[in-house]
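pinning this so it doesn't scroll away 📌
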Amino acid sequence: MNKRVTIRDILNTDEFRDFVVLAGDSALDKEVHSITIMDSPNPFPWSVGGEIVLSSGYIFKKHESEFEELIRKMSDAGIVALFIKLKRYFDYIPQNIIDLGNEIGFVIVSVPVEMSFVDVINPTLSKIINFQTEIIRKSEEILSDFTSLVMNEGDTLTIIKVISEILGEEICYYDMKLNEMYHCKSSCYKDRDFENININQLLVEKESYRVSMNNKIFGYIVFLGRKKGDIYRDEFNALAHANTALILDTQKKLSSMQIENRHKNEFVRDIITNNIRSKMEIEKRAQSFGWTFKETFRTLIVDIDNFKDEYTKMGNTDEKRDINNDLDDIRDNILSTAVRVVKSYFVDSVYVNLSDTAVFLIQNNREDKIDEILEEMSEEIRNTIGNKFDFTVSIGIGESQDDIINVYKSYKEAQMAIKIGRTIYNSNFSLHYKDLGVYRILYSIYQNEDVLSFCKSSIGKVLDYDGQYNTELFSSLQKIADCDWNLKIAAEELYIHYNTMKYRYKKIAEILDKDLNKTEVRTDISLALKIYKMSE
């Protein structure tokens, strides 16, 4: 596209072949918006920038001592050039003015004395108006092209190729809603491949245009061959039409995906809640989505920590409703991040989003390494989300099931891992059902009055002593039990001297009035400590 009308374009007009550039050669590519006549020494209040000033030279002759200052003021006001007649009031332009024009990039052009102002103004305005007319014509053509694209269901890549051809630029488009990158000369990158392209770095280094509506960002058009700078005025029409077409295309995709995802979600929800009549039903419904269930299965739950608490803080004002909408977007982005990580490890996994939770059905044929892989993946999910958002997530993992029809059992196990993990770790954890141990039993009884009474009788005196004397005996007791009653290891982990730990051990025994070396006493205390963790 012809980006703009420049001083050079004006000087290339046939009628101006006898014009001579006296100064400012380096500034000939400055944009021209209009041309006007200078008949006073103070034209600056009406200057809006981009003007060529046409002068007979009289004003400069009359105020010759201010000639240099006038040139500086004209440049500061955004005036791009002085077209001045010589041989009438000036035989030549003083050398200091020529030097100044070259220094500050201000163009000074000699106009033949016999040319009238009209002979200069009309061709200049014609060129500017013709350019603006071409912009309007091109805009209508672009609108027609994009309307046709949308009507004929042109895809995103086609839209990008069209805008690339219109602008004459190599561009790419990053779709934030679908996390996809499109390039005008290649196919789309997604999921793991997308990590090879640093979109944030591109946005810093390259010129870009934000595709948005109602302050919601859908993506960015990036000019790959252009460093950071201004987008040309005439490009905005094309980009505005591309903005509309890309948003419509994205909304169409999202609408289609929402319908399909609703059916997928219903199917996965039926599987994990055991709302299935037969294995054949699973196979038929899976086929409709192109899914094949052949391997062993287990359930993994990703739950956003304390997310519902944020909703309870909100009211019904417009501002708070906007915050609610932002929270919805954050939730969707967090769960989408979890999906991308899981899919990068288990491409055949399926999932359902349940409010602020994502439930994954993971099938694999690597059962010998599955625990190691799940641990690595869970850590990546938590680290990625924790670094990117102001929220953390907790992860519960159920046991493996040989048949998809029984995967609801794994779901219940993953749920229990989340619930028990919340009582022990509160947030930002990953926990396997198989690692719950005695907590599986304790979870069903820990709020029983007899159980709480047992807990108090076993360790309550140490808690009371800490409260009364501001000591740290209870935390020491917890660490000793965690270290399998090895005082040396417990001391090292608490960064205290071994003799200090021996003293605390003896003091705890005195407070409880029990022999802590007896196996049955240690068993009671260890059990009481687990119950305490769940009930505190």
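📌 and the second one:
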Amino acid sequence: MTNPWLELNPELLKLRSAAVLVVDSSGAQVFKKQIDNPMPIASITKLMTAMVILDSDLPLDQKITITKQDRDLVRLTGSRLKYGATLQRKEMLKLALMASENRAASALARTFPGGTEAFVIAMNKKAKQLGMEQSHFSDPAGLQVENVASARDLVKLVTAASNYPLIESASGTRKLTVHPYAKRGPLIFGNTNRLLKNKAWDISVSKTGYINEAGRCLVMKAEVDGNELVFVLLNSFGKLTPYGDSNRIRKWIRQGT
């Protein structure tokens, strides 16, 4: 089958992300750059975490409480979910996806049958099932540098994640209000993907990621001029670079089609 995107001139597209892959719903590559190099993916990991939880059929309305075991000892990041914060499993999952809440991701894995160790095994098993041959997962939040994948593998991850309605709705939620404390007011969390605020974008699934070793990362499924596309942008330098690159790609496609 002929690639309909070959008429686009990739030389016109100057991107700052180290690895980029954009594919359409048929799997045809729209743009590619360093797509087979495994590299740290930071919180993109949480898409795999969400799929493993949903595959497990654990009760989504079951209450989960944040404990000291959920604190980040790798990056020493803070959290608004303090020890004792209690939410339903589906709320923890939503916060892990849309707000990239590390303690929520940790609690999801800790309360998995067999605990976090069994959960990480399940993550790597799922990756193998999806044909993610250049990927490895070592923790549920993406804090460790050993969470790696290639851009090609992450297209498979996003495509699979888009088949889960809860992942689609959660990752596209702009704001979420939760009540984790009995004697305190609610907390409001925002989405880490600022493109969701841009009406020019029609995004169904998305996840951001950042640790120093991974740079700024963004994956998403979005519609551009009637074409359903998966975007993978890895190791961008600068907080806004993945969004700038995404807008450059979108403009390049629209001007060339």
